[in-house]
Amino acid sequence: MVGALVGVLDEAALTAFDLAISVNGSLVRRSLGSSWDTPFEAADPVREFSWRKDGHGFAGWYYSATVRDHVGYESWLERDRLILLDRDPHVAAIVSQPFWLHWHDGIRKRRHAPDYFVRLSDGRARIVDVRAEDEMDEATQEAFDATRHACRAVGWEFEWAGRPEPVFMANVRWLSRYRRARCGRPAVVADRLLEVFREPMGLWDGAGLVGDRLQVLPVLFHLLWSGALKTDLVGGLMETDSLVWTEGNTWAA
């Protein structure tokens, strides 16, 4: 029943919506207009992560190389979105369940805790809600519509994230094992890999030109994770003969 809010001016939305934020373990509720500039990247989740034994969800903690801390999720789909956010060079911070958004839909009081608050490197904010398209119901769609409206009122981006392309996601999941900065060392190996792959060649062959593959491959995978090296992550699962090239190579364009 978000229809009652559709025609509301953005200025009015600043008071039509409230945010409940966790402060020292207690929820503090204020209007959207007086709390939108809270540094949510430092906020605690407003509720515990939960999942049902007989459901599709699965709660857990993902270690984010971006924030150097664990970020919670409540499903494999949310975990996959976390991995993609962690790999995005424009993302500076990620927080799960950052606040409760409260509003009245014209019939009853409603509330929704978005899945993620994302701070971008240029200072912009993005709210991300994760749900597969075939699992959307009316109540969820209404909650997402209300969240989008609240975001628009304060200049935040809103993203509804569904299922990622499966082959791409499988490859990025593999690369995420090498997301930590230590996998990119020693620097001399990273520099040599960037030099070798200026001419596109197979992953296995290029690693062998640099040195002992047991030492070289973790660095190579870290560079693929960071985007310094490129390969086709969509056309098929990575193999030893997958073509790899250095980012910015004119051949890749």
Automatic annotation (TrEMBL):
Residues 88-159 form the TnsA endonuclease N-terminal domain. It comes from the Bacteria. InterPro entries: TnsA-like, TnsA_N. NCBIfam families: TnsA_like_Actin. This is TnsA endonuclease N-terminal domain-containing protein.
